[in-house]
Write a structure and sequence with these properties.
Rossmann fold, 10 helices, 6-stranded mixed beta sheet, 259 residues, binds adenosine-5'-triphosphate, 4-stranded antiparallel beta sheet, 22% strand
């Protein structure tokens, strides 16, 4: 086990209230025949960076939307730092970076950041803001309308908000897809730093290499069920990689294709 995982294990033992605690959540879309999520139970402790992975359609985004009460929980419960997830106290402790590009194009980047700062009652550190703009290649663009940002720039602006607010729980749904390699590297590092400071993060991504570098644990969703919840060091020792674990769970072997 790496030093990092040992540190976070100690942190686990010291903490009694998880940053995120999902208990027995099931969900079915109104017109769907089958449930999309079945009895989902897992947690993320303060200081932990947990990867949420699974094939397309396995229910990752649906699960995240229930965490943020975008979809009402139909059975089970979700707590943020011990408070019901739908309570405004819980909402002020958590931030959701959505997979969709639904940023308000009529605001400038700086206005967008200030809007979040006001919502969360946080004062923006101007030095940190300009350092982050520089780090993510957005220096000088903060006064431009978001409408004029590229796809990747909008995603980087969302990440900057997360790294400025530093709330106890940050949940990222594929926001890292589509950003350039340098920013991806910095984002991974900044997320790790956020968690090393004691904050928690849930990162939904198909970038297994990144998870192997920075995550403490990985939760694998398959057909709406959690089929694995393992530390990255355990995955490395037992399976070699997250890719191998996933292939094994899906029952896929190299050369299986019927071309
Ligand atoms: N609004 C909806 N109404 C009905 N079914 C939906 C709706 N949104 C998603 N689904 C279905 O729920 C299942 C899970 O979708 P979800 O988007 O949560 O998966 P995902 O794991 O996030 O996938 P991806 O990796 O492609 O983003 C899929 O079968 C999808 O078709």
């Amino acid at each position: 086990m790496s030093d990092r995982n040992e540190t976070s294990l100690e942190c686990d033992l010291a903490q009694t209230v998880p940053a995120l605690d999902v208990r027995g959540v099931s969900f079915r879309y109104p017109r769907a025949k089958n449930t999309v999520l079945t009895d989902i139970t897992f947690h993320v402790q303060p200081g932990e960076l947990v990867g949420l992975i699974g094939p397309n359609g396995s229910g990752k985004s649906t699960l995240i939307r229930t965490m943020f009460d975008i979809y009402a929980v139909q059975s089970g419960s979700i707590f943020v730092l011990g408070v019901d997830h739908a309570d405004s106290l819980a909402r002020m402790q958590s931030l959701y970076l959505s997979t969709n590009d639904d940023l308000p194009g009529f605001l400038t980047g700086e206005e967008y950041v200030q809007l979040f700062a006001q919502m969360y009652g946080v004062e923006i550190d101007a030095t940190r803001f300009s350092a982050l703009l520089k780090r993510y290649g957005l220096s000088g663009r903060e006064h431009d309308l978001i409408e004029d940002y590229s796809h990747g720039m909008q995603k980087k602006l969302q990440l900057i908000v997360a790294f400025l607010l530093r709330v106890p729980l940050t949940v990222i749904d594929e926001t890292l897809n589509g950003i350039d390699i340098e920013s991806l590297f910095f984002a991974a590092q900044d997320l790790r730093d956020l968690c090393d400071e004691g904050h928690a993060a849930l990162l939904c991504t198909h970038d297994f290499a990144m998870l192997e570098r920075v995550a403490d644990r990985v939760v694998l969703l398959y057909n709406g069920c959690i089929v694995e919840d393992l530390t990255v060091s355990h995955i490395r020792n037992e399976y070699g990689s997250i890719e191998n674990l996933t292939m094994e769970v899906l029952g896929v072997e190299w050369g299986d294709d019927e071309r």
